[in-house]
Amino acid sequence: MGVLLIKSSAEKETLQQEIFKSSKLPRDNTNEIMQQNVYRTILYGVPFRLADEYAHATKKIQYNDSRRIVGAMCNVYMNKLSHGNTTLYGINDKVKKINGRNVITSRGSFRELVSKTLSQSNDLFQEQSKLWEWYEDKDGKVHPRLDTNYFYTALEQMNDIKLFNRKLFDFNEYNGRYSLYHLPTYWSEYQLAKRILEILHGNSILKTSKDIAKLKAINYGADTEQALAISEVFDNKVSIITGGAGTGKSKTIEILANVLLDENANLSIRICSPTGIAAQNLQNRLINSPSEKVRIYFSDSINKSRTIHSLLEIKPSKSIGIIRSKFSYRKDPLIADILIIDEASMVDIYLTRSLLWALENHVHVVIVGDSNQLNSIGPGRVLYDLTNGLKRLQKKEFVSPLPKWSNLITIHRTKEDSRIPILANTLLIQNRDDRWNCFKQELERCIEKGDVRYIKAQETKEILNLTVNEYLNNHGSMENVALITTRHNQEIGRNILNQKIQSKLMKRSGFEEGVIVIQNRNDYLHGVFNGEKGIITKVIENKIIAEFIGERTVSLSKNQAEKDWLIGYAITVHKSQGTEAETVLLPIWSEPKSKIWNRSLLYTAITRSKNKLIFIGNDDALEQGVKSKEGNRLTRLPLFYREIANRYKVSKKVDN
Questions:
Q1: Where is the UvrD-like helicase C-terminal domain positioned along the sequence (predicted)?
Q2: pTM of the predicted structure, to 2 decimals
């Protein structure tokens, strides 16, 4: 908001309503926090600028108030977490004295980001120029930095912040080096590494040999790669099975279950996924398995594939990024002998830690996913760190033991001659120019064969209109077509696409009869989970009724529906994960100074297609997307793993 001065209570009330809307807490809780310290609402999703405007409106906050500076620090750290980082490197700038001048030799420090955040409100707190110290960069440009005393005083005060009576941040100094940790992510990564190693060192309950398991898997229809991956589960306490589109990961899980039940029909096999739709898809495969014992076992409600939240009995929580489950390996473990985690690329550090914290040491853990897909929405990149991350670390220093990693590469997907998975796999080529050249060549083959249509358009408005028309021409049942875009609020984002499509289909907007909706959170009461699609069948006064796949009828008040559902003609790439459609539509466009698509987004979107793919856009935007990489996340999981593994080595030497 571009507010310069707040002159009326009406404007203050508007700001208050904006804060209520942004906060992830209920209105009453948010209001209570606002009365004490509006900057604490930043911990619950409120942007710093909005909190700053409200504070300025109250006329009770000065430019140098420590609560304000701490609020800016919280805003920077929460932004880091929202982009998937679990740690922060570079508290302060690197500065050298050159010819008597303070010259910054590095960029992107925490201090720089905090200074920029405070600078957003130069129009509100004009006297805050007194907060700055000035430094030059190598080119002679001058940059403001928060005064050293204010900066380190505020960092010390970060230690006093508590969330639900637990310390949230830890700022400390060791041997002249400063560090600032977000404790929930710090301990989640540390404890996850610790639990993996404890399970790896635990005794196995499986008796079938690796060779026998491999032979059985082949007899049940696995190819050589899949059979080898299955056999490793019997020889390793923690196994990771990765594979790209069409390599048969779900089939591998099904055959693994069959071989496990051969050994002991009374094994407790728990299978879970991060989303309801992914869990449901896997459950459908299991109860329709060619194996009678697999069908019978997973038809039992106790054994069915379910969401991670459901398995851990995690209830909707007011906490931000803190997952709490009643299960603990120390006192109340989850009953399981085998835990299989599907679609693991989508699982963040909090959920993965909670899963392994719930397991006793005898359990075999099998982690399955595609490490080339998008990372989790929450912090961390668990699947990548436990595969490529540990592999890279292994080149520098030998670490043992490691989870056993099997990577499936043979494609078996859809029609035997479909080339869409091959097109997706060209995006995995490391060199960006080679990647683009191979993608172009394979795209031509796909177009020639009829697997892909490419509708050329240059202008953003033209791409938008063509995308809407193409969707309307193709849409039938909810499973038939998926219109996938990158974000919610871009020129061809989810919101504008849904508005345009709905206006073509009906005169009114919003939740009306016949509108497709998508579930936006896990609803345990009605058994409908994040990412599932439904269709509104009735609107009666304040009640909205929708049918979800599987003959599930959900009736919500209008207010609750607005919280739980989104209009679902177009969805984001993140929301599409774990789903498939016969036809996938992708609008491909570019915006100045903004990367719309990158190769991870494209890979994930393309691999949602069962049979047909439609691009609408132009070569320049497509090339930019293919050549762009997803930003790196800063995480510590491999480093924690190495540290704890080395500690095990030392303790073994002492014991000997």
A1: 568-615
A2: 0.89
